[in-house]
Amino acid sequence: MRIKYTISIVFFVALVIIEKENNIISRVSDKLTLKQTPQTPLQPSGFSHILLKHNGSFTSHSKLDSAFTLMKRRLEDYSQHQEAVTGGRKHILLLATTRTGSSFVGEFFNQQGDNMFYLFEPLWHVEKMLTLETGGTNATAAVKAYRNVLQQLFLCDFSQLESFIDPLPVDHITAALFRRESSSSLCEESVCSPFIRGVFERYHCRTRRCGPLNLTMASESCLQKEHRAIKSVRVRQLENLRPLAEDPRLDVKFIQLVRDPRAVLASRMVAFAAKYKNWKQWAMDGEVPIDDDEVRKLKGNCDNIRMSAEIGLRQPPWLRRRYMLVRYEDIARFPMRKATEMYRFTGIPFTPQVKSWILKNTQASKETSGVYSTQKNSSEQVEKWRFTLPFKIAQVVQKVCGPTLKLFGYKFVSSEEMLTDKSISLIEDKVFNFL
Ligand SMILES: *[C@@H]1O[C@H](CO)[C@@H](O)[C@H](O)[C@H]1NC(C)=O
Ligand SMILES: *[C@@H]1O[C@H](CO)[C@@H](O)[C@H](O)[C@H]1NC(C)=O
Ligand SMILES: *[C@@H]1O[C@H](CO)[C@@H](O)[C@H](O)[C@H]1NC(C)=O
Ligand SMILES: *[C@@H]1O[C@H](CO)[C@@H](O)[C@H](O)[C@H]1NC(C)=O
């Protein structure tokens, strides 16, 4: 009796899953009016009728087996169908905060080759414009603008972004795109309009002499590429991007890059010295006013990062197979292994160009370079903060970012000696993704 009851529950659940799946498929196909291939039948097959006929009271195990086989095949059909919708095209969003090595990790995708359209921090313009207009106080407006711009850019549509570029582009031409040269896609031959001496006083690409960016050309080039990747340090909450994950035109893969908040603070105190002058003062005084706005901001940042990761790691249906968490420290120590994992997650081939770029850029380099440089001995960089951040400040970070440190596996230090003892690793081995 008990067994029969359990079996009927199992099949009821299975039926619900199949029905849901069919609904999703028909919704998707309604929107896109796809040509359906005959080998992937999208209408309910014989499965539901088996269930109904047997009224929840199965007697034969072979029937059970065949029902499961059918269910499995239909789930496979469903994932193949997803492929068909986006044509295998992947949309990678690298989410991070400043000083987490996101320029470096962004290069993993920028270097991929002719298949990839990569954009470096397009939301810079959006943040700048909104800060000018509203003092940056309208969080709702920012969330909406970031989401819309990202969604359009993944579809190679630059029009929303254009409206945020200052000065406003004329005839879709701009000389003001932030860090254009950081995107090799925007400096390719096909996106390189002639450089006219005297009209604009500087070149706009490192590798070749290009004039200002023609965004129509950029869009055309984007449409030719198989995959698209965007790096951004400006998205606060992963949940705000749910509509992108659910957009049937996109196959979005979110990669969240995190780093020990103590190291991030140490790095920001150097890179953004003026903005972090209070912290420098506190570091010298050895006293931190714990209720200061700056400390509250630090806590807010940590909480946002943690909450995004918690949602991602929980893998709700809208994020299934779409979220990967990566620690900067793991990338710095095992760049090739982590890059391989990231590429496996995205479903894009890991090209020899990327491999050789990583090899070249993770070994010691004698060249000294600016704060945004990606050319550093990355293993060495991981530990550097432990000798520059005063123990007092580390304690404050541990206090306000405690849950974040715990989630990502960063060990607390209990004394100055422990902080600066290199034989004690502060990074726990941790596996986050079950892909
Ligand atoms: C199926 O279930 C209905 C309602 O529970 C019952 O009336 C009917 O006799 C069942 N049929 C079979 C074939 O067991
Ligand atoms: C904030 O932005 C939203 C969405 O654009 C808008 O509806 C709202 O009026 C704005 N609020 C303020 C205070 O400007
Ligand atoms: C920008 O590129 C488009 C597409 O190639 C072209 O039609 C247009 O004339 C270009 N604009 C200018 C001002 O050169
Ligand atoms: C980079 O730094 C690490 C740690 O100090 C060291 O073990 C390694 O040999 C360095 N790599 C190179 C290529 O110098």
Proportion in helices = 40-55%
Named once each, the bound ligands are: 2-acetamido-2-deoxy-beta-D-glucopyranose
| Strand portion | 5-15%
Strand order of the largest sheet: 2-5-1-6-7
Please mark out the parts with pLDDT under 50 across 5 or more consecutive residues, or reply none.
10-53, 364-375
Mean pLDDT: 83
Distance between the termini: 38 Å
Pfam family, one: Sulfotransfer_1
Subcellular location: Golgi apparatus membrane
Signal peptide: 1-18
Membrane topology: Single-pass type II membrane protein
Sequence-ordered SSE layout with sheet pairings:
Layout: H1 2-32, H2 47-54, H3 61-86, E1 91-95, H4 102-110, E2 116-120, H5 123-134, H6 139-154, H7 159-164, E3 173-174, E4 213-214, H8 215-224, E5 227-232, H9 242-245, E6 252-258, H10 261-271, H11 277-285, H12 293-314, E7 323-327, H13 328-333, H14 335-346, H15 352-362, H16 378-384, H17 391-400, H18 402-408, H19 416-420
Parallel strand pairs: 1-5, 1-6, 2-5, 6-7
Antiparallel strand pairs: 3-4
The structure holds 2-acetamido-2-deoxy-beta-D-glucopyranose (NAG) (4 copies).
Residues 134, 138, 140-141, 144 line the site of one 2-acetamido-2-deoxy-beta-D-glucopyranose (NAG).
